[in-house]
Structure formats: structure tokens, C-alpha cells
Amino acid sequence: MRLTPDDTTLRSEFADDPDMAGIVALFVRELPQRLAAMHAALSANDLEQVRVLAHQLKGAAGGYGYPKLGEAAALVDHAVKEGQQVNVIRSRVGMLAAVAARIRP
Amino acid sequence: MTPQSSPLPKVLAIDDSELIHRLLRVRLQHEQIELHGSMVAVRGLEMARELQPDVILLDIEMEGMDGFEVLQALKSDVDLQDIPVIFISATASMEDRVRALDLGAVDFVAKPFEVVELKARVRSALRVQHLVKMLAQKAQVDGLTGLWNRTYFDRRLSQEVSESIRHRRPLTLVMCDVDGFKKLNDERGHPFGDMVLERLAKILQSGRGSDIPCRYGGEEFGIILPNTSGSEALEVADRYRRAIEQETWPSAVGKVITASFGIADISVLPGTQGVDDLIAAADSALYKAKLNGRNRVEAANINQSTG
Ligand SMILES: [Mg+2]
Questions:
Q1: Burial code of B90-116, b = ≥16 C-beta within 10 A, e = fewer?
Q2: How are the residues of chain B apportioned to helix, strand and coil, as percentages rounded to the nearest 5?
Q3: Residue B82: pLDDT above 80?
Q4: From chain B, which residues contact A within 8 Å (Cβ)?
Q5: Which residues contact B42 (CB under 8 A, 6 or more apart)?
Q6: Which of A19, A60, A61 sits opposite B26 (nearest CB)?
Q7: pLDDT value at position B133?
Q8: Number of neighbours of residue A18 by Cβ within 10 angstroms
Q9: Domains and CATH numbers, chain B
Q10: Average pLDDT for residues B232-253, to the nearest whole number?
Q11: What's the B110 CA to ligand 1 centre distance in angstroms?
């Protein structure tokens, strides 16, 4: 089965808002670094830092027009808060990274 | 500075995420506000003291000091406790909301926020704050002339005296009294006297923006001149004196109305003097202006204020 681009990419709900274009583009450009920082914290077993980064993404992603990304970040935030096993947290960070990979301005 | 001046309302956002600050800057750019921001709670508190914002947008989860602690610090500071605080948080649990409101926050916006809702809540808080400020200001404005009243004058002068001493900045007080006002009132009636006071207030308001004209009482005005030396104040007061003398009155008045001025420069007073000494010095200079023929400006000097 071949997926059409619409199924694979997530565009900002505010893509057509000229006021938002600049900061949405910046958000998308910086997203890989945020994910990299989260992976690094995970490798260092710094779960609190994983949570802080996920929490900030959870609060902001929707504002940039990416609610699905916000939901995926919330799952990471909650997993750490609930004291889940590291492998659960790692798998949720993986899910978040998969959503992030589909993000376009 | 007169009671009418009202700059753009200031909104201070305290949130540890740069993403939120960028978003707020764009989303609130068309609002009639001046937006300031801090990513560090402690710095946010400092900025609140410097800016005296009209509304504070406050994040809950921040490293170091969280939003609840910031709110408590705000509420325990007399200069900051009346600033409305709106929490913006991704942690929208019922407990957090109740706690925030119990601690004195006026509102709560969940992140990610709906732009329309955010704007509406900010506007609503600003409206309430504007009314509160207006009422507070109304209690300090003279009903007849629209100038600051005596209550404001006393508070502001003592504030300016401390500032002047702390920062070694010049400060001069000008007292102004309408010449022969009692006679005018008796001959022409109180409505006429009121009209004269209103016109004089307009003239005193049309001076430099930094001058603070107040109605001291009756036909006496006190003008606080921050950052102004006695010699500069002499010129400023004389401009007011001439403007009053040159005012065109309704032909029925049939005479020129004048005022006398006494000025006191805080730096010519011996030692560190208080507000009362400054007022007394300006008043005795005013008395000298009356004795010396009215419609003139006299300055207090060291000999005079000590003797
Ligand atoms: Mg935060």
C-alpha cells in the first residue's frame, strides 16, 4: 500500500496564517534538536530532563498548530510522572519521534 | 505628568519556554498592549517590580521557582499584590486550577491555548485592572480642576524627595497662589472664582510633561519639578506666571488675573530635609513674592529657610 503525502505529513493548522509563518518554520527547524536533547537525556537516564522537555513540547505544540505532536509529548510527560519503566518511556519517546518526523511547516 | 496621561497597558509573561514567548509575541501583536517577558521566575519578579505591569501571565512548571511560589511572592508584596495574574499552564488539573485561584490568580488558561480565548481573558483582566486603577486615580484627582489633589501631592512629593536624596538628583517645588483671589470671589461670586481656577489649572497642565501640577488647596497650587534645579525652576515658574498674566479672559472680567510663585530647590536646604521643610521653604518664598508686589517669582534660599 502506498501512502499519499497527506497521510504521512502533518502540516500546521496555522499554515495559512501569515503572522504565524515565521515562528512555525522556526519551530519545525528546531524540532530535531529538541528530540535529540530528549534522546540524550534518555541515554543519560535523566528522566526529569526528559519530562521537562516533553512538558514544554506538550504545552507549545498545539499553539503552533500541531495538536498530535502535543498529545504524543503529553504521553511522555505522563509516563515519567507516573513513574513508568524506562522501556515504556523509551517507547513513548520513540512514538513522539515518529510523529515529529512527519511534521512540516 | 497629569492625571489624563494613560500609556499602553503592560503585560508581563513569565514562562520558562522560549516557544511560549515566541507564540505570545505573535498572537498578541495586534493587541493594544506592551508585552514583556521573562524565562526565569526570579527575573520575572524583578521585572514586575520595575514595570508595574497591568497583567501577569504566569506559567506553573518552571525550574527553580514554580508559578505557585511566584504568585505567593507577588501576593506578599504590597506594590505587586494588586496586579491580576492569569495562569497559563499545560498542567490543567482541577487541583492546580483551584490552588491557583485560591492563591489569588484571577484566571486560568490551559496550554495549548486557543488564541481567541487567550486574548479575551487578557482583555478582560485588563478591563478590570483599568477600572481599579481609574477608581484609585479618581480618589487622587481634584474634582474642579482635574489636577492631582492634595492626597496625591503629599504622597508624590515624599516619593520624589526620597528619590532625589537617594539618586542625588535635583528636585524643586513650586508653590503658586492666585493674587487677590478672595476679593475676586467676593466681588464676582464663586462660579467666577471656579472658572479662574479651572483656567489656571489648564495653563499649569500645558507646561513640560515632567512637571507635576497639583491643587494644594483653595487657590493654591503645588507643582513638583523632578530633575529640575532651582535656576531652571525659576524660568519654568516665570513662564507659567507670564502665561497666566497674558491669558485672555471674557470681557466681563475687565481685569488681568495674576499669580505669585515661590520656589524651593531641595539642594539649597541645609542637611537632609523632609517634605515639610521643602513645603515651608516654598511657602515662605511665595509669601515674599506677595510682599514684594505679587505677580512675581521668588526663590527660597538657605538663609531664609533656616532663619
Ligand atoms: Mg513551563
A1: bbeeeebbebbeebebbbbbbbbbebe
A2: 50, 20, 35
A3: yes
A4: 16-17, 19-20, 22-23, 26-27, 29, 61, 63, 89-91, 111-113
A5: B64, B65
A6: A19
A7: 84
A8: 7
A9: 10-138 (3.40.50.2300), 150-306 (3.30.70.270)
A10: 90
A11: 12
